[in-house]
Amino acid sequence: MATIESIQKAYVDYVLTEGTEPKSVYIFAKKNKMTEAEFYNYFGSFKALEQNIWAEIAIKTLVEIKGQEVWAQYTAREKALSYFYAFFELLKQQRSFAVYSFQKQPRGLTTPPVFAQLKDIFESFCVEILNEGIESGELSDRKFFSKRYKDALWVQFGFVLHFWIKDSSAGFEKTDEAIEKGVNVTFDLFQRSPIDNLFEYGKFLAKNGGIKESMGFGSF
Fold first, then answer.
1. Of 3, 4, 13, 130, which sees the most CB atoms within 10 A?
2. For residue 175, which of 159, 199, 195 has the smallest C-alpha distance?
3. Per-domain residue ranges for the chain?
4. Tens digits of per-residue pLDDT, 37-86?
């Protein structure tokens, strides 16, 4: 009886051996001694199968990091760093497949379909920790822009994935460095800055009529 795990394993073995996906579900099923029906019980296509593999890595990452005793004590920044480090640590175990799957995706401004489920899981996690950060005061709650914070983290994730694919350093230590620098810079932008203080001051003056009065301070 075929299972999700056995189908995934058989598919990864096939694409890494042949360098391409099977020509049809029939051929793949016959080669692995299963029926087409068994395959379709779990996946509607090879694309859906690949989506599921990426999504499972994201889910395993969340289970792993949220199971840490110190998780509740982490700041939003630390939780994001923890996710990035853990995800790419798990991805090492399937590097050959990850490289194969990544390199055959079309390049463009939109997210490749194979990463659709992964993106949903990642963004849901980001919204969770970002809201925590805003509520605690760690992050600045900027009108309109706060809702885009998760998009900035997704862009950062895509950059790190692309960097990791090309990274040839021992233990992928350069990727770890890219994660540290990239996530920290991104969160620096999310935090309160002098610009936020100036903006808040401007709103205060406008609300209390202080702007017009300050315009004539030269005659004081």
1. 130
2. 159
3. 1-44, 46-200
4. 999 999 999 999 999 999 999 999 999 999 999 999 999 999 999 999 99
